[in-house]
Design a protein that fits this description.
Length: 146
């Protein structure tokens, strides 16, 4: 005869509730994609202001560099204008009548006793034509009529 045993009901493991504190495996479907998408969105939202901030800093750096170049160019222009004025002043002093008379006296130059005038013949007013133009201008030669 058999000994009496307690009846034990066996459940399928898939139907049993999960033990407390244990994590269930993540589904690989929609929830995983949603999580990846939210991480990407969070990264994009964090990167966008940084990109705009770096662009703003780069533009301001370029503006400062252009300002320094403009200032240097304006200083160079002012120096060039000042040297141009000094050279014009020296040229005016060199071309003054008193200076030219002093240079002529140093070279023992005098006013001429007589002045010689040479007449240059004027250029001819007759237009020059080529042989080809002369042949076309004449209707007689064009039609070989004598």
């Amino acid at each position: 005869m058999r000994a009496a045993t307690a009846f034990k009901l066996e459940f399928d493991q898939r139907l049993a509730p999960p033990p407390r504190g244990a994590r269930s495996p993540r589904p690989a479907g929609r929830a995983a994609r949603r999580k990846r998408f939210s991480v990407a969105r969070l990264g994009a939202c964090a990167a966008a202001p940084l990109i705009f901030l770096f662009g703003y800093v780069a533009l301001n750096a370029e503006l400062v560099a252009q300002t320094y170049r403009l200032n240097a160019d304006q200083q160079t222009q002012a120096q060039l204008v000042q040297s141009d004025d000094a050279l014009h002043q020296r040229l005016a002093q060199a071309q003054s009548v008193a200076r030219l008379e002093a240079a002529a006296a140093a070279l023992h130059m005098k006013e001429p006793a007589r002045v010689a005038v040479i007449n240059v013949p004027s250029a001819s007013t007759k237009p020059t034509t080529t042989a080809f133009a002369a042949r076309i201008a004449s209707f007689k030669r064009l039609f070989f009529a004598r």
